[in-house]
# Entry
Amino acid sequence: MSTFSAIAARLGEQAIELPSWAFGNSGTRFKVFMQKGVPRDPFEKIADAAQVHKFTGLAPTIALHIPWDKVDDYGALRRHAEEHGIALGTINSNTFQDDDYKLGSVTHSDERIRQKAIDHHFACIDIMHATGSRDLKIWLADGTNYPGQDDMRARQDRLADSLRKIYDRLAGQQRLVLEYKFFEPAFYHTDVPDWGTAYAQVMALGDRAVVCLDTGHHAPGTNIEFIVATLLRLGKLGSFDFNSRFYADDDLIVGAADPFQLFRILFEVIRGGGYGRQSQVAFMLDQCHNIEDKIPGQIRSVLNVQEMTARALLVDRVALEAAQREGNVLRANEIFMDAFYTDVRRDLSEWRESRGLPAKPLAAYAASGYAERIVRDRAIGKQAGWGA
Amino acid sequence: MSTFSAIAARLGEQAIELPSWAFGNSGTRFKVFMQKGVPRDPFEKIADAAQVHKFTGLAPTIALHIPWDKVDDYGALRRHAEEHGIALGTINSNTFQDDDYKLGSVTHSDERIRQKAIDHHFACIDIMHATGSRDLKIWLADGTNYPGQDDMRARQDRLADSLRKIYDRLAGQQRLVLEYKFFEPAFYHTDVPDWGTAYAQVMALGDRAVVCLDTGHHAPGTNIEFIVATLLRLGKLGSFDFNSRFYADDDLIVGAADPFQLFRILFEVIRGGGYGRQSQVAFMLDQCHNIEDKIPGQIRSVLNVQEMTARALLVDRVALEAAQREGNVLRANEIFMDAFYTDVRRDLSEWRESRGLPAKPLAAYAASGYAERIVRDRAIGKQAGWGA
Amino acid sequence: MSTFSAIAARLGEQAIELPSWAFGNSGTRFKVFMQKGVPRDPFEKIADAAQVHKFTGLAPTIALHIPWDKVDDYGALRRHAEEHGIALGTINSNTFQDDDYKLGSVTHSDERIRQKAIDHHFACIDIMHATGSRDLKIWLADGTNYPGQDDMRARQDRLADSLRKIYDRLAGQQRLVLEYKFFEPAFYHTDVPDWGTAYAQVMALGDRAVVCLDTGHHAPGTNIEFIVATLLRLGKLGSFDFNSRFYADDDLIVGAADPFQLFRILFEVIRGGGYGRQSQVAFMLDQCHNIEDKIPGQIRSVLNVQEMTARALLVDRVALEAAQREGNVLRANEIFMDAFYTDVRRDLSEWRESRGLPAKPLAAYAASGYAERIVRDRAIGKQAGWGA
Amino acid sequence: MSTFSAIAARLGEQAIELPSWAFGNSGTRFKVFMQKGVPRDPFEKIADAAQVHKFTGLAPTIALHIPWDKVDDYGALRRHAEEHGIALGTINSNTFQDDDYKLGSVTHSDERIRQKAIDHHFACIDIMHATGSRDLKIWLADGTNYPGQDDMRARQDRLADSLRKIYDRLAGQQRLVLEYKFFEPAFYHTDVPDWGTAYAQVMALGDRAVVCLDTGHHAPGTNIEFIVATLLRLGKLGSFDFNSRFYADDDLIVGAADPFQLFRILFEVIRGGGYGRQSQVAFMLDQCHNIEDKIPGQIRSVLNVQEMTARALLVDRVALEAAQREGNVLRANEIFMDAFYTDVRRDLSEWRESRGLPAKPLAAYAASGYAERIVRDRAIGKQAGWGA
# Structure
């Protein structure tokens, strides 16, 4: 197995984007529980995200969600982020919270509604120019609830047509990142339900159209690391939305439900060239802290990704390939598991300290008094949340 | 196969309880789409439910949800229902929409919160006295999101203790009906996840504690009709929450996703003595009409149950048992399918007319002008919905 | 809704290929139950398959499986089929029953074994020339059981390379049809687990490489009709392996587990141009009759496909599209369900009689004495089965 | 967190029973791959099982499967085991490999076949007297493939009746252990599909009837540790069949697919009093080594259980309970994960050495020459396997 010192440099290449919406209130269809100190606007979300980066060094950017993070002056927002030591990242569009979109957005049979959804993406691209964002991430709630409700194939054609218009509006290095999802909020069919559909759609668009893999958006039992390997092989893995799940799109803290799956995913990312500075694959979190504290929840999340990345980097790939070539099933598996079972936490603490970061980020955050401060400072006003 | 005339009398025994919350706005965690004409209070919900009964003759009662349907005078509500030709039915408790219940209600480690949840059930029982309801239905959102978050076994003990207190408060013929659910809103463990847990808990309580089977609350692939048969055999099937699903707890119109499953369920209900006037098994709907019209959605639902009940009644059980005894797999299956594939709709239309009901309930409702009237009459005020 | 007479002509276009292995013994890993009268060689399988066509008019071809159906003289086999009124169809390769293939065949890291697997496909192509078959269907058992066991991505490259060699050997109108499967017999990863992988692989090959969709080869909850629509849209749906399942790849009689799903699939086939004489989409069965009689099981199966095709053809697509355009969810669904709930069996009986076929194929077969004859005639010798 | 030294004594209490059938050839319905050196009779299986115990100290007993392990003289078999340093354990009945059982065994509608199956269990009990076994483990393949094929409820009654007869035949401390399984080989319904059914059946029998939990026998997503906790609470957890799975009943090496799940299960076992000398819960493996070496596969398996047991014992339960009481979700989860992420392998090596066992059991076995010896010695004769 590789030693920790051999992988230390590579760990420095890690960057995980935080979702602005992780800091606002979220919940299930049954209830959104309110937490004290939650941000009231995008500026406060950025301040919170910056805390995660301050204590971990892992989260240099924050993704925005439009219209949740709409502001009058994106230049000011950008400077605000920079003053807090982070940058603005991916722009996420939202075509699922307007009554017009009840039966679809870019796939809607009504041209007016389709155009409205396309225009929203144009507005997002305008924002990207102001924020300096590279990626326009498109997750669609489009789908149907009942067989026969709409023509699934015609919707694919309309989807292709709408995406084409959006894609053509991109400039320079900007990318269109299409996310797929197995189900929810649509309960019969989803217009982009699987990686195959996303892949076929982005293939038709061009080089700067890629796929976003959200780890919670698959059918039960799906081998996600296989999809990672395949999309990397096809040159179409654009980004990750990390989270974890036991059942459906539970949006739990990444690594919480199945740490070994996270390890396998990160191994394939590294093996396939998706990790590090030269890679175009964006790492992002997309999860909800419905019942746990939000900033610590994000700190826990990026640490989980880092710890598992370290383990995946530790795999002795030379020995592994030898065992694989020999067809030694048990030996190959053992080499793989050796890295997973290695406890990297002490080494990571030292690594952090060597870079001027706290050995124990969660404890350091707790000791900083920030949590108490925001509870006090944000006592009045409307808290941000989904739909805020 | 039996003839339709042979089963006509039995069809007259059918009664399906409607959920008051099916008439208010509902949605997913992403969005609640508003519909025009939606009720603004429990009285209007009852008026809408009465429409379903008026056009189908199938829905003589309405279930209430506390506190959503809290009123000052339940006697008045009861009379209001009776004036509209229906009666008040099951009382559903709600311990999932108060901030205190973030980490649990009747299973919470904090005695104060447990007692608050128990007290809520006591209040529900008081309402039952006023409404004349037989059943107190308890669905719990209790569970955890993360391994280690709480002690699952201690929660079972606390659950047993809380249920005991609630059960002991019941009087006369009142029943405690415990519903289980595989997951959601809890994403790691649910305190009553399966029929086995519900069964073990109600067995410990006594004769008037029974299980509610919601058809959307199972793991993928679960053979629900087997559970129906088993609970009937054990004497513990108390009621149904009907709906349908492709993925999780999608809460679609009953019969919409898998009509054949509904047929199999109803066949086991009938075979096991769970159908008809002498049975204590309550038929209820529990579904959301997020994107479709609500009153027609309920009409469609009760008709689906009726049509499938007719098919299930048509099964030639004598021939079926003979084929089963012979081990004739194909023949037994064919006899079973014969009933399923029989188109009973014309016969049901005639049956309806013979009883003074419209042949085509959906068309008759559409022609009645009720939909237009409520849109007009309820233009102002706050619409009811989950949490309203 | 369309009338039956309006669709009668289109029903005449239906042709469903039977798998030769459906007539031999099959089972689970726990037990293969023997049946009397089972064929002892490919000639007898053809004779049995011809019975299905004789009584239904629906099954004019039989698929062969190599090496299970290896014979010395394929010309003789072809003539034997023709004398029985059917033709030879798809050739299925088999690279999963040789000890060499324990860790893979066309994806194996050992070049010798890969070449052996490729050579087997070359031999299959040679047979296709003799049998006049159009399609070479490739289902691979390739995959791994343990994380780390092999390099999933390198296996994709080797798969692509092997398929390229096989594809280049095809001549004239011959096609390579690549089948995907979610899992089994591999239990960690499958080399072609989903339609996306199959699609990406056949896209790289060329026009005459297409995808085979086996209805039992998906993750739980997968919307199969969406995949049908999508593959038809992309021009890459080559064929179907029909069967049904409640859990995994149960290989039950098509339509037995979820008749409504079969209806939805067939609707998308028709809507997408995959049905009828002008279509290149091949309909095939691939199922096991482990406990039921084999020839009647196949008759039941093709009748199920026919009955559901009739229902799908009956959908009033003009009215459906109008309701869809209006966004009338309930109405669109109702139009769709109207066709599904229509009992077409009597009309189909008359249709059959009008074409010189028995009104009731199963009864006619039972009355024919064929079953008794083969039990008597095939009393000695080794029965054919998987691996025979 | 606890220190390793604090748990060392408790590790000494671990005993994991091996299945005799793990040493014979096994496979999928597609192919059984043969391995060299595989046992040819029960005596050789015992010799192989003894190797696992010799190098790990963890596997002092071997379970037998009747009729696979039928011998003329069970006294001789028992002495053979003792001479090899192990003992005979659970007796597993088999009513799934006789043609009579095609449609069921103890649930069959034919009284003759039911009695045959009951008699087989009587014969197993006779063997238990000779072997000194405590447990009769009953896993039934009984079920149906098609809706309508048989009467599911009548089968429950027949099951109860048959189990009653078998249970009444037990003597002294003998136990009846009923195993449940979600599906396979039956594909529509299974007569004991879930823990609830097994629980209801054994409750009706008496104190010495308990449930066996096979970790691969659940629906996708099932929270198995919850079932462990619940069965322990109800006093009805009799034994475990350990293995792991990604999809269905894959029967992979325990801990291979989801190590964290194994950790959670073992934590609940310990928390609920199911671990250690005073406990009546039997730990058993039930898995197949289809493609990997069999003896090393078993060594790997018992080590996996041991390593994860050590981690589960390390959980700081006092701190955990404190965090749980405070409702500190993140802290409670962190305490739980701390133990899981601790690398116990070096400590376990030392622990082993301190007890006269090899530090590295797999390497020690490989160096022992046993594998080469059995390949040489068992070159001729029929290998044992399922059905042998």
Notes: Chain A has a mean pLDDT of 97. Chain A touches chain D through 27 residues (CB under 8 Å). The longest strand of chain A covers residues 87-92.
